[in-house]
Amino acid sequence: RDSMKLNALDHVNIITDDLAGTVRFFVELFDLDVRDGPEPLPPEHVQWLYDDSGRAIFHINSKQMQQAFRRETSSGPMTGAIHHVALDCSDHLAFIERLAAHAIDYRLNDIPAINLKQLFFSEPNGVLLELNFRGE
User: Of these four, 35, 67, 105, 112, which has the most CB atoms within 10 Å of its CB?
Assistant: First the structure.
């Protein structure tokens, strides 16, 4: 049991009515690399978005894609029991400029006691994102 541990958040899976638009949102905001999901996943229904370390951070699936675990989802203001997804990021000022350039409404939360800045905003399907910037 001593070797059991949670290592890191692996990925976030988002179901969407607009695959191309959702992929574009994440690519433009985070400079991610778009790749087809692995076979046999159909690329017209599944796109994986990779960071510069080669990690697939976001799995974007069209509603038409058969999920490994079936559950009803809907785009909009509710994301079930998940309140938000937090991402460790760098350069909060550059992200603020990018959010403004895309006319994305955000909230900045500054916690000086632990030298943490946070940006909160929703992606196109209503998932609340929290970007964390430590030491900035």
Answer: 35
Residue 20: what are its φ and ψ, rounded to 5°? -60, -45
Topology alike, domains 1-68 and 83-136: yes
11-20 pLDDT, tens per residue?
998 988 899 9
**Angle of CA points 111, 6, 45, to nearest 5°:** 90
Superfamily of domain 1-68: 2,3-Dihydroxybiphenyl 1,2-Dioxygenase, domain 1 (3.10.180.10)
Spell out a b/e string for 26-42, using b for 16 or more CB atoms within 10 Å of the CB, else e.
beebbebeeeebeeebe
Residue 80 clears pLDDT 90, i.e. is over it: no
Task: Answer whether residue 34 shows pLDDT above 70.
Answer: yes
- Smallest CA-to-CA distance from 86 within 57, 59, 61 is with 57
Q: Which CATH class is domain 83-136?
A: alpha beta
